[in-house]
Amino acid sequence: MLVLLLVAYGAWWLAAQFTGDTIPGNPLVAFGFRRYRALWTPLATVFTVIAESALVGIAVLALVRRLRRSEIDKRATTIADHRELSEVTGRSALEKAKRLRPGVDMTEPGAIGLMVGTTVPGDAPILQSYEDTMVVVAGPRTGKTAGQAIPSVLDAPGPVIATSNKSDLRDHTRGARELIPGSRVWESDLQGVTGEAHQNFWWNPLGNITSLKDARRLASRFIAAEKIDGARVDGYFDGGAAELLAIYFLAAAIAEGDIMHAYAWLSDEANDFARKLLAASGHTIAATKLRTAQGLYPKQRDGLYDVARRNLNVLTDPDYARTVLPQRRRRIAGDDTDLAEWSPTHSLPEFDPQAFVVSRDTLYAMSMEGADAATALVTTLVGRIFDEALKVARVSPGRRLAVPLLPALDEAANVCPLPELPKWYSHFGSQGIVCQTYVQSPAQAIQVWGRRGGSRCSRPPTSTTTAAVSKTPTTSGKYRKPSGLSTCLAGRRPTIRTALPTPRAGAARQPCPFPCWPSSPKTAPSS
């Protein structure tokens, strides 16, 4: 009521400026004395109606907006606005981009950083800089692919790794990525996620193995990908099998063979050809270890070898094995195993992970859960690219990639469970590897990478973390004052919406249509 009286007094005062009437300076006095009420004019009535109608309209509009507010906007009072953010928005983001990428035209799409969304308070754009890594914690059907992964892949200035267990990320970005001058699209879809099983290249998993430590790294990735949920871990057999696997990888690599040579020698516990190769090439310790394993009590030895072979189950499918074999296999003198003469020919080009890192190419690697999962091959391939990226970064100016590498690891826990990934997050960004890892919940990350690794993945220490709708209670309530992102569509590109608190940016995504790429690409046949 007091507000309405003050508005009426203001209208009366304004009318008096036109009529020349005198009204008291105190509105309570003005409305309290009959002689002043007599001075009320029709013009004052008009001004009062206009002013109070506007006031009522504003109140109704505010009420309607309040009723329509989403859970996102209700959090606006508890999250940071753009003035409290640094290096991810505004001029500070631009200055950081100029420092990280000198000489680059900052008006180009994606030049400053990859769009994450806009803040709820202030409507300011939030960017993932080319020194940041990001984890997206988002449950199924929250639009994380359409809202974050697709725009990031489209705007990425350099090479892109895109993994998924569905075809949407590939369908909505492949056409645009193919238009990049001088670039090439590589695609691995051994389970027919896009409609037809295919892979348009082959690659050599043993290509960078020169020592036992290199071989151990490859073995650990096969083991992580083939790990059975809920299976009991046996310290003796699992640890021994991992070392055995690495030794056979090393033997095949020094003989300039392929991974199927290692598989063939591993399949015969009594075959000492690999041991002789190791001893002749100076790898005496590895040869001694292999002799020890082969000399174990038969039941113990068989168990150890069986566990090791189980991690290479993916290679028992000829179509899968062909993708990690050269166009013509090398015949190693003295090798008399059953697979020594096996040579499945093909005409696929070789994928060079090191060349990929310094290109603007795109790799789509897809795998689905199940008995026929290609997860082990996807995991080892992505891991190999990361190995090469780190090598290139360390000898590049500033110890970082000249053009950033974007790994968009959608459904990472299911498709690409790299054991080193949580640890890499602490330094990937500083070397120009702007990784985006998508997990459904912190619990899923813990299941795959363990409690410590899962915690790093769901809340990396120096990274921009983006969280979307996830029903896991531990997702929220951990952070002091997060930022939030608003919901809107900018042209054909969506910006991101916030749902849960995050350290620097949060997002819940809503799908929007994109031009699709046909589900039957013109790629070389897999055989």
From TrEMBL:
This is Type IV secretory pathway, VirD4 components. SUPFAM superfamilies: P-loop containing nucleoside triphosphate hydrolases (SSF52540). It comes from the Bacteria. It comes from Nocardia africana. Residues 452-483, 503-527 are annotated as: Disordered. Gene3D superfamilies: P-loop containing nucleotide triphosphate hydrolases. Pfam families: T4SS-DNA_transf, TraG-D_C. PANTHER family: CONJUGATIVE TRANSFER: DNA TRANSPORT. Keywords: Cell membrane, Membrane, Transmembrane, Transmembrane helix.
